[in-house]
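Example 9 (inverse folding). The structure is encoded as follows.
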């Protein structure tokens, strides 16, 4: 009855592991791109899973993993909010989706996309203070350039998530635009 040859024995564990490994896209998405920040998070998960759940190290790593995931969700939510405000309600999710199949639309756009992304980092609070730029958003900015919406996106991000003195986060950003 107990055989090590059962291909379905670890099916539940595989699903849970896939869920944690696929940190940006839909779970089990075969086109998922693994970037450097994905590897950092994945390594944290691997180390945490090797520790005793009652240990202080496990709790600290678990908190760090949770915090990183929440930060990623918050950044994605901010981008989506701006895209929707720019009129991309139906396209926002697909504009934010980056896969192995994603390409830069025009190699000449690469430096412009990088410049805009750096301006977003330096002049807005769309990214948290400690955020390290993700290649993922370079693809998104490239798409915005191709749609001739990158400058409008930057203006909207500056209005909704203005840089505050001292690096404070603009959590009330969406309300600032409405007032």
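The amino acid assigned to each position is listed next.
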């Amino acid at each position: 009855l107990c055989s090590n040859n059962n291909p379905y024995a670890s099916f539940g564990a595989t699903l849970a592991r896939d869920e944690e490994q696929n940190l940006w896209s839909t779970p089990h998405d075969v086109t998922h791109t693994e970037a450097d920040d994905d590897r950092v998070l994945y390594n944290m998960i691997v180390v945490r899973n090797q520790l005793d759940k009652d240990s202080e190290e496990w709790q600290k790593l678990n908190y760090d993993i949770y915090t990183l995931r929440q930060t990623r969700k918050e950044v994605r939510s901010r981008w989506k909010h701006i895209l929707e405000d720019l009129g991309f309600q139906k396209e926002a999710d697909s504009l934010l989706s980056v896969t192995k199949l994603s390409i830069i639309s025009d190699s000449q756009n690469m430096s412009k996309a990088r410049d805009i992304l750096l301006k977003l980092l330096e002049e807005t609070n769309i990214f948290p203070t400690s955020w390290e730029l993700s290649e993922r958003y370079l693809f998104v900015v490239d798409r915005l350039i191709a749609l001739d919406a990158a400058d409008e996106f930057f203006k909207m991000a500056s209005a909704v998530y203005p840089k505050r003195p001292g690096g404070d986060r603009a959590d009330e950003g969406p309300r600032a635009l409405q007032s």
